Amino acid sequence: MAGDLRSLARAATAIENQTAAGRELSATLFPNTGRAVIIGITGAPGAGKSTLVDQMIAMMRTAGKSVGVIAVDPSSPFTRGAILGDRIRMQRHHADAGVFVRSMATRGKLGGLARGTLEMALLLDAAGRDYVIVETVGVGQDEVDIARLADVTVVVLVPNMGDEVQAIKAGIMEIADVFAINKADLPGAERLEQELRAMQSIAPVCRVVSTDGTGVGDLIQVIRDVYESHGPRSRSVESWSLRLTEMLRDQLLESLPAQAIEQHAERVAEKMEDPYSALAALVCLVKEKVIE
């Protein structure tokens, strides 16, 4: 909270690793949250999300605002590791104390975010960052968890990627507070904007060119306007109901012994046990851990 970056980095590690110390720290810091604007940036792979975030950081810093960035990268299904390459595109900010960038691997978690992303965002909020930007994996229409976390969710689209609106509108299109048409200097940008406006009339649409910063300032202003119109989701009962449900699910799964699910999976696969009996046994294990 005093602005020490090494302390912030150590705290981030404890929270990302879901340690008891990290949870205790999150609980202690929680009363100091609710001041930052949490912005979710999501969209299909190749839409230019990281480049757009890099330009947003630059303009926010020019305005004298501090920024925290959580870049969520997909994990290998085999090693559970990740290249954590999104921060490569943000290298120009590495020496700026007003910018804190943290990469997180999904480690098998679906929905576009990593475990602990909410706690990480709250940490950066408590550390006094004016803006916290969460860039999701970019997995497509299942990537809707960001709507539970962010105050404002920006869905990034690009023209000439086929029938992109029809392809993903069943998922992330419905969670958008703002649409950003990136690479708007390419042919097809106007047609994409018309399709978006014809499909819905609530979320504003902004055209940007993230490579040179065109329109990014206007996008930030629209995000501010949307934020001020509905307020932070951190004060929404509905939002916290969804968040607590997700946190409860994660903690209950974590309370299971490491091999418990695999052991029951083997029994179910061999028809020695039905799935419902396996679930009942796993629930009993969770209850035993809670009682302990």
What is the CATH first-level class name of the largest domain?
A: Alpha Beta
How does the overall form come out from the CA principal axes? globular
The major pleated sheet works out as: 7 strands, parallel
CATH architecture name of the largest domain: 3-Layer(aba) Sandwich
Fraction of residues in helices? 40-55%
Count of distinct structural domains: 2
Low-confidence stretches: none
Give me the number of helical elements. 11
Radius of gyration: 20 Å
Q: Into which percentage range does the β-strand content fall?
A: 5-15%
The helix/strand series, from N terminus to C terminus, equals: HHEHEEHEHEHEHEHHHH
**First-residue to last-residue Cα separation:** 34 Å
Find the count of extended strands (DSSP E, 2+ residues). Answer: 7
Name given to the CATH homologous superfamily of the largest domain = P-loop containing nucleotide triphosphate hydrolases
Secondary-structure-derived class: alpha/beta
What number is the mean pLDDT?
A: 82
Strand arrangement in the largest pleated sheet: 3-2-4-1-5-6-7
- What is the third-level CATH name, the topology of the largest domain? Rossmann fold
